[in-house]
Amino acid sequence: MRLTENEIAKRLWESAEQYKPLIFRGFEEEFLLAERARADAVVEISVESGPSFKAIVEVVPVANPKTLLQKCRLLHDEFNRRNEPDLVPVVVAPYIGKRQAMILADEGISWIDLSGNMVIQVSNQLYIERTGKPNRFSDTSPIKKIFQGTSSLVSRALLLKPDGFSSLYQIADFINRRNASITVSTVSKVLKSLEQELFIEKSKSIISVRDPEKLLDRLAEDYINSTKRKARKPYRFAADNPQNFLKRFFERQIDYVACGFYAAQLKGLAATDQLTIFVKDIEQVRKARECNWIAITPDAEFGNISITEANEPGVWFNTSQQMNKAIVDNIELYLEMMADTPRGPRIAETLKQRILKGEPT
Questions:
Q1: What is the mean pLDDT of the chain?
Q2: Is there a domain that residue 361 lies in?
Q3: What is the rounded (10 degree) CA torsion for 26, 31, 35, 37?
Q4: Model-level pTM?
Q5: In the prediction, which pLDDT does 340 show?
Q6: Pick the residue with more confidence: 277 or 228?
Q7: How far apart are CA 356 and CA 121, in angstroms?
Q8: Quick one: how far is CA 25 from the chain centroid?
Q9: What is the pLDDT of residue 31?
Q10: Are 118 and 179 members of one domain?
Q11: I need a surface site. Which of 37, 78, 207, 313 has the fewest CB within 10 A?
């Protein structure tokens, strides 16, 4: 359950010891201000054996970027209204992550979180920075599921169409015509979260990405940390003629898609003697072997064919045909290469430029 503003203020007051050398004075008594005031509180803060200052405070239960910017505007307005140059604007939240801290730094706003982190600056007189403590309030974390599974396809669609979309229905249709399935309701929920995190811009006529590079980086971060990706089990086989093996796959209508460095090779970005593919159902491969439809031999150590079962929608979304082979699209391959160290990130950088330029996949 998320904390209310009053609960956050109370916890800050009760846990004041962890913020030494800062000392809070009069926080409880002055928390509820007159109705004309826009900030949540004015607090007297002093430093042990040092100066004291007065802070105007905004309490933020969930510090997503959009809400933070709104609170920053309120603090700037209140600062200007009071016309007291010595006042220090401060945001208090359960947790302030790296991205939120950067936003506050750009806005010139100090901050404290209940997890024990803070950055306090009083003109040129005082600067205190204490960061790195983990989030103790997981329900205030950004929603990671929007970058996983079917929900992640919304971000990928937005990256594939830099000019943006005119409606939710257009986004859903764009995705559903590219080997995927998504509802308008899911698109709506994902867009709401993306807007709160300042990844997209919405107007009456267009929905588009604010910063494609940041959105692509966020997709990569979640992909690298994905437990589903880490749980994939590759099966290695040996074949005298790997290309003939793929031809038989096609003839038997076994769903597959080229991935990894093999896909990078097909896109002119790498060279490899390993054929790597995803399949939707590994049982189809086993059945094909048992029936002698494909000639491959299990070889966990030296096999030149690697087959992995993958049901994630991102693998199959927007696949392309090249050299009569199904290949993962540039975004999926970029995510794979970012996770495949140490060689992968070099290929990923080239793919990144292609994606940001809107080049065909």
A1: 89
A2: no
A3: 70
A4: 0.77
A5: 93
A6: 277
A7: 37
A8: 39
A9: 43
A10: no
A11: 37
User: Collapsing DSSP states into helix, strand and coil, what is residue 242?
Assistant: helix
pLDDT > 60? residue 280: yes
Cα first-last separation, the chain: 43
Q: Is 347 exposed, middle or buried (0-12, 13-18, 19+ CB in 10 A)?
A: buried
CATH code of the domain in which 210 resides: 1.10.10.10
Same domain, 26 and 130: yes
Sheet-wide strand order for 52-59: 22-25, 41-47, 52-59, 88-93, 110-113, 118-122, 126-130
For residue 17, what is the DSSP state? G
Residue 257 located in a structural domain: yes
Give residue 27's pLDDT.
55
pLDDT tens by residue, 33-73: 444 445 677 888 888 877 888 898 999 998 999 999 999 99
Do 115 and 193 lie in one domain? The reply is no
246 lies in the same domain as 295: yes
How many domains is the chain partitioned into structurally? 3
Q: At 47, is the secondary structure helix, strand, or coil?
A: strand
Tell me the residue ranges of DSSP E strands in 204-279: 207-209, 234-238, 256-258, 275-279
Are 232 and 351 in a shared domain? yes
**The two three-digit tokens of residue 303, written as one number:** 């096999």
Q: Which pLDDT value is given to residue 140?
A: 59
User: Considering the domain boundaries, does residue 193 fall inside one?
Assistant: yes
Which amino acid appears at position 253 of this protein?
Q
Taking the C-alpha atoms of residue 86 and residue 79, their distance in angstroms, rounded to an integer, is 10
| Token pair listed for 239 | 């074949």
Strand partners, 127: 121
What is the residue range of 149's domain? Answer: 144-225
Torsion of CA 219, 174, 349, 194, to 10 degrees: -30
**CB neighbour class for 15 (10 Å; exposed up to 12, middle 13-18, buried from 19):** exposed
Q: Is residue 242 domain-shared with residue 199, that is, in the same domain?
A: no
